[in-house]
Write a structure and sequence with these properties.
The chain is of the alpha/beta class and 143 residues long. The protein has 5 helices and 7 strands, in the order αβαβββααβαββ. A hairpin with a 2-residue loop joins β2 and β3. It is globular and about 40 Å long.
């Protein structure tokens, strides 16, 4: 038994503690969105029309970060990547709904949020520290 535990312990010591991260829903500081429940967040990212003060909101999805993508799929839409892609395609074909706009980096997400007061995106909380242009609406997932 000790022979099995020793390599595992060495591996864990070498890897070190992992940093916990929070996935948050963010908007521009002057956005009309004050809060949003999880069902409404899911609807928004599934392509359904969601409004705040009669203004239609726009979902932004950040791709390129595998861990963020996994957390998004699990916590926001509750589907695998394939299921989510098929669902968005079906919504586009049958109902003419636009899928969320995708961005590939944190900088691109922040720029898209800066340009559109009705945009909503998912990001790691530590990516917006010190950024006065965006605010957190909801904690979506905690690692």
């Amino acid at each position: 038994m000790r022979r099995l535990l020793a390599p595992l312990l060495l591996f864990l010591l070498a890897v070190g503690p992992t940093q916990a991260r929070d996935l948050v829903l963010v908007v521009r500081t002057d956005s009309p969105v004050i809060e949003m429940d999880s069902l409404t967040v899911r609807k928004l990212f599934m392509g359904f029309a969601v409004a705040a003060n009669t203004h239609s909101l726009h979902a932004l999805r950040q791709e390129g970060d595998v861990n963020l993508d996994r957390a998004f799929l699990q916590a926001v839409v509750g589907m695998s990547e394939d299921q989510y892609g098929r669902r968005l395609l079906r919504m586009a074909i049958k109902q003419g709904r636009e899928p969320p706009r995708t961005v590939t980096s944190t900088a691109e997400m922040l720029l898209a949020l800066h340009e559109d007061p009705l945009a909503i995106g998912c990001m790691w909380a530590d990516q917006i520290l010190g950024n006065a242009d965006v605010r957190v609406v909801r904690l979506l997932w905690r690692d």
